[in-house]
Design a protein that fits this description.
Blueprint (H helix, E strand, L loop, with lengths): L1 E3 L1 H5 L5 E7 L11 E2 L3 E9 L4 E14 L6 E15 L9 E2 L4 E3 L1 H11 L49
Parallel strand pairs: 6-7
Antiparallel strand pairs: 1-8, 2-4, 3-5, 4-5, 5-6
InterPro entries: YceD (IPR003772)
Protein name: DUF177 domain-containing protein
Length: 165
């Protein structure tokens, strides 16, 4: 996602707006997630004399799988951000670099998304997951397994019981 900052560079202090939606290009470090739709960015940017500062929100819809019940679901993210782009970036300050009159936003967008991804996706906060005995989705109702761990004879996981013994 490219944004021309030519006018901002010529008019220090003047605020400009950006609204765009597209899939970012990731050539360095893939996030290993699938996006369900283009990533939307709404932001304002201004040149402060040293750097072009972008402030706004990133919206992304990710195709995810619940870490408890294994159902596929759509995980939506709305991420506020404020990042600086400079011709001589200060990496200690977290600035991104750019040349010419255009800023490439892809790395910044993917960095912000990766910082806000959950360690484990959950389809809902109170997901009960799968029964460890019979494998039934406990969100759909009780499975009938006894809490002390007695295994039913028709348990599909019974064949795996001694696998690591």
């Amino acid at each position: 996602m490219k944004q021309s900052v030519e006018q901002a560079l010529e008019n220090m202090g003047r605020v400009y707006t950006l609204e765009a939606a597209e899939m970012p290009v990731d050539w360095e470090d893939p996030l290993d997630v699938s996006f369900a739709s283009p990533i939307a960015v709404k932001a304002e940017y201004v040149f402060d004399g040293k750097a072009v500062i972008f402030r706004g929100t990133i919206h992304a819809d990710i195709e995810a799988q619940c870490g408890s019940c294994l159902k596929e679901f759509l995980y939506s993210m709305d991420i506020p951000f404020a990042d600086a782009f400079s011709r001589e970036p200060d990496e200690e300050e977290g600035e991104y670099g750019f040349d010419g009159e255009e800023v490439l936003l892809d790395k910044m967008i993917l960095d912000e998304i990766s910082l806000h991804l959950p360690v484990r996706f959950l389809c809902r906060e109170d997901c009960k997951g799968l029964c460890p005995i019979c494998g039934k989705d406990r969100n759909a109702g009780p499975c009938g397994c006894k809490p002390n761990g007695e295994v039913k004879k028709d348990n599909p996981f019974e064949k795996l019981k001694g696998l690591f013994d």
